[in-house]
Design goal:
With 301 residues, this protein is of the alpha/beta class. 37% of the residues lie in helices and 17% in strands. Helix 1 packs across helix 5 and helix 6 packs across helix 10. The protein is globular, with a radius of gyration of 19 Å. It starts with 5 loop residues before the first strand and ends in a 6-residue tail after the last helix.
Length: 301
């Protein structure tokens, strides 16, 4: 297989990773799925063990011959020290990229207010990892809004709240605004990003700016449910993350990290990856209808 057609995906077992792997495998390309515990590969996919907890991952062997490497790794599920792990992982991955001579790296992070002096630990870690990969290996840093699709942790938390709680007592974060992106649009934009100039930061977001209250209200309406959402200023995001264990299957460390990130608006304000890749993203209502209708799980691959 020609070098130009070899693509590696670090974090291929995650929500985005699985769908991006399937999407890229449909092209005339060899896809290398990098995972801690490789599963049996499908056609045109090579599963390769790649564990960033192991210092040997920095030797670059897993990335030999790769033209484009996607970095979709995060350590939120591993508890309170996830930021230190994410930093170490990013540095090891950057070293592997340099040693293997990979010319193009694409990193998927999250939207955050660029001018904010203080971010949540999750968003601060996403920003730090993006800066490491930009500085160390010239990565394209993609800042994505909340991904709407079955299996997305942020979407599953929202859906669980709406389905399980007729009355929601929430912190003030329900008034924060965000810019969600449909799962299929996010996957397609990432797949096409290989043709876009790297070494810079781009945003990946849908066309609608919405509060979390508005999103949950729309989800309840789509599901035919009547829901009352009450916001209490003394009810902190960290406290709300603890009762999520009773209503969602999203692991508590991930739920806590995500919920604590909702204090601030997350609005796109930079170059638009969808525009640069020729994609017109779905609006939130259409994306929500698809996800809640049961097609969100596989709509991206």
């Amino acid at each position: 297989m020609p070098r130009d057609n070899v693509i590696a995906i670090a974090g291929a077992s995650g929500f985005i990773g699985q769908r991006l792997t399937r999407r890229l495998a449909r092209e005339d390309a060899a896809v290398r799925a990098l995972m801690r515990r490789p599963s049996a590969p499908a056609a045109n996919i090579q599963a390769v063990r790649f564990d960033l907890d192991d210092p040997a991952a920095a030797d670059g062997e897993a990335l030999r011959g790769v033209q484009t490497a996607y970095y979709l790794v995060h350590a939120m599920a591993q508890g309170a020290d996830f930021a230190a792990r994410d930093r170490q992982y990013a540095l090891r991955f950057a070293a592997a990229v340099r040693r293997a001579g990979v010319p193009r790296v694409i990193y998927l992070g999250g939207l955050y207010p660029r001018a904010a002096a203080h971010l949540s630990p999750h968003l601060q870690s996403r920003r730090e990892v993006g800066q490491i990969l930009l500085d160390e290996c010239g990565a394209m840093v993609v800042r994505a809004g909340i991904v709407i699709g079955r299996g997305s942790a942020a979407f599953e938390i929202m859906r669980s709240l709406v389905v399980n709680l007729p009355v929601m007592i929430t912190p003030r974060w329900v008034t924060s605004r965000c810019q969600p992106i449909d799962a299929a649009d996010a996957i397609e934009a990432l797949a096409r990003a290989r043709a876009v100039r790297g070494g810079r930061v781009l945003d990946l977001a849908g066309p609608d700016v919405l509060s979390y209250r508005a999103m949950m209200t729309a989800a309840a309406r789509e599901l035919g449910l009547r829901r009352l959402i009450l916001s209490l200023p003394v009810f902190s995001p960290s406290l709300s993350s603890h009762w999520l264990r009773f209503i969602t299957e999203v692991p508590l460390p991930i739920a806590r990290a995500l919920v604590e990130s909702l204090r601030q608006d997350a609005i796109a304000d930079g170059p638009d990856l969808c525009a640069e890749t020729g994609i017109t993203p779905l609006n939130f209502a259409s994306s929500l209808k698809r996800a809640l209708g049961g097609r969100g799980q596989d709509d991206a691959g």
